[in-house]
Amino acid sequence: MSKYKDRTATTRYFLLMHIVDSLPPGIDKDELRDNARRAWPDEAQIMDDVFILHQARLNASEIFSGAHVIIADGGRRYEAWTKLRTAQQRMSSHQSDKPEHAVSGPCCHTILFGTVDEHTWFQMENNSLEDWVYHLVDFIKYKATGKNQGPYGSSAHTDRNPLRIITTRRIDGQLVELD
Question: Is the pTM of this model over 0.90?
């Protein structure tokens, strides 16, 4: 999916470290750096596909804190991510026009994704559905605070208030890439 298919793992890592270094206070940067060093290939690919987008880099703190993100991409990222080796179909409470999938790993914990209105949505979850007790605790925190619980904090960007990243525009009936 990435525009830069020849990126090496080292290049991806340094891009991610640059993003981490630019995060505002509030996220444990040392923990994120340590986990990023151990990122699994599929979660690294998703982060690469997300953080190549300027608007995503500007909102990295919210994204790592569990923001519900809609990328206006015509569903292209969803289609690519469902083909990742470790992507597993799973259910969730989120609205999705196509089946939801998840990719897990040490950096992002769980990246849940689907589509809505022909666009890719995703969010990083603090605990996977398989860790149902901890997932339930995160759900209770969400209900109490109204904030999604991500791997490095919490975010007010929920399904009802998503973070929107515009990458395409419809011109003469065709989706045109902006970023």
Answer: no
